[in-house]
Design a protein that fits this description.
disordered N terminus; 6-stranded antiparallel beta sheet; about 180 residues; alpha+beta; about 25% helix
Length: about 180
């Protein structure tokens, strides 16, 4: 895959102290297992034409934890409309979900992952977060429709950054 789709980022995005693994691991019975974000394998034609999975970044004006919780809450509310397999990894700040075959909008199935990041302003943690949506497999049109709908709903709830210049600057960190 290309370097832009790596899940680890060396930009001005940081992990929180509470997400580090505890020093005393004797109290843990099972080690934490994390799942990687794996875009679908590309065939030779997709590689030749340099077709990449869809990636969208949303800037939040709330903390990373609150942004993740709100997105998970929204995805779980949408279960009755065909959203399926909502999986949350709190330590890594990742969420996986998908639109099932049977859904109320009659769109094609898609699986996607969401990564949340904290944004640093002038070297300090700000009350800002970024969410990167990555299409894992399925229809790109369905992925874009889900992301646009999430952007609309989260914007109505007042969670997204409204200043266009600030949002563009935040997005440029991950893109």
């Amino acid at each position: 895959m290309s370097g832009g789709l790596q899940t680890r980022s060396t930009t001005s995005v940081t992990r929180h102290r509470d997400q580090q693994y505890p020093k005393n691991t004797s109290s843990l019975s099972v080690p934490a297992i994390t799942r990687d974000i794996q875009p679908r394998h590309q065939n030779w034609l997709q590689k030749f034409l340099r077709i990449k999975p869809a990636v969208t970044v949303l800037p939040f004006q709330v903390s990373r934890v609150r942004a993740r919780k709100e997105m998970v809450r929204l995805l779980r509310e949408w279960r009755k409309y065909g959203m399926r397999d909502v999986i949350v990894d709190k330590v890594a700040g990742r969420v996986w979900a998908g639109v099932g075959q049977k859904n109320s909008l009659h769109i094609r199935p898609v699986s996607f992952a969401i990564e949340t990041f904290t944004v640093l302003e002038r070297g300090r943690k700000a009350n800002l977060a970024l969410a990167r949506f990555t299409q894992e497999k399925g229809a790109k049109s369905s992925f874009e429709r889900v992301v646009k709908t999430m952007e609309k709903v989260l914007g109505e709830r007042g969670l997204l950054v409204e200043d266009v210049g600030k949002a563009r600057g935040m997005r440029s960190v991950l893109e």
